[in-house]
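Protein modeling request. Please complete all fields; requests missing the sequence field cannot be processed.
Requester role: graduate student
Desired output: 3D structure, token encoding
Chains: 1
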Amino acid sequence: MQKPIPALFMRGGTSRGPFFLESDLPLDGAGRDRVLLAVMGSPDPRQIDGLGGAHPLTSKVGIVRRSAVPGVDLDFLFAQLQPDKDTVDTTPNCGNMLAAVVPFALERGIVPVQGETTTLRVLTLNTDMQCDITVQTPGGRVSYEGEARIDGVPGTSAPISIDFLDTAGSVCSSLLPTGNARDTIDGIEVTCIDNGMPLVLLRAGDVGRSGYEDVAELNADTELKARIERLRIACGHAMGLGDVSSKNYPKMTLIAAPRRGGSLATRSFIPHVCHDAIGVLAAVTVATACVLPGTVAEGQAVMPEGAVKTVSVEHPTGEFSVELELDPLDPHKVVRAALLRTARLIMRGEVMVPSSLF
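Delivered output (358 residues):
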């Protein structure tokens, strides 16, 4: 016997996965996680018995409900699964999957359309982060067709704007969890920072790399990956995150001077696989490091003038632009981060799991 669970399979930014109403899943966390592992087909490197795409970027799940928090419309819980592991991690954020939350809620009818555009406030339960998300809803329906283009996704789609309200210290205790803009850890100069995603930034040259290598080359570089993992574990303790050997954060980001007219070149590890692009909140955090004095990005990043800065974060398949607004009274403090994403409904229906899991 199998049990059907209503689901929408959606792309959010450069990630994709099934989205569920919280009420359609088991209420207890352990039961919910067993169901999600079955849905995705984990643990199995190919995820042949589920919906997973055999890659961390396609092993993600979104869970949504109406919010009871005053001023908030929707609560979103992100779950990161791994192809070859039996883990369900709900501690980090995912800004890419976040882009599909409002389209999902409108498709399921749990919130009403507001007009030609619909703006809803979303609370990410993973880290208690709020943002305002605006989607195109002409004629009372979500539009997925448009001229917005994001690197890492073929074609164009309707734009989705995400305005983050307060992302500093999303998982760590503060924006700079070590108390410093720059530290030397395990012999490497790093910046440990969390403006939506815990990150460790290091200059690619400090580990004997250019920072312009392609993804396949970096994923095959076992010596580099072992060196980065040793550094990541040491930085995890320094950031107050404890033993991060089994966690998906902090992400490790190699940086170099921009090469294609952007602000900074990056190669992001998530954390053991080099990302084809860069995560949304990782891009926000990298951009923040570019505007703060004393970080390892200083001397590498090329930055525009003004209190509102558009930071173009170069990555292996293009660039990711983040708009940062600085506090006019404190130019070293970021008060707003905004960006553009796209999303698409790929499939609607029911995913089947063994009844014994309920």
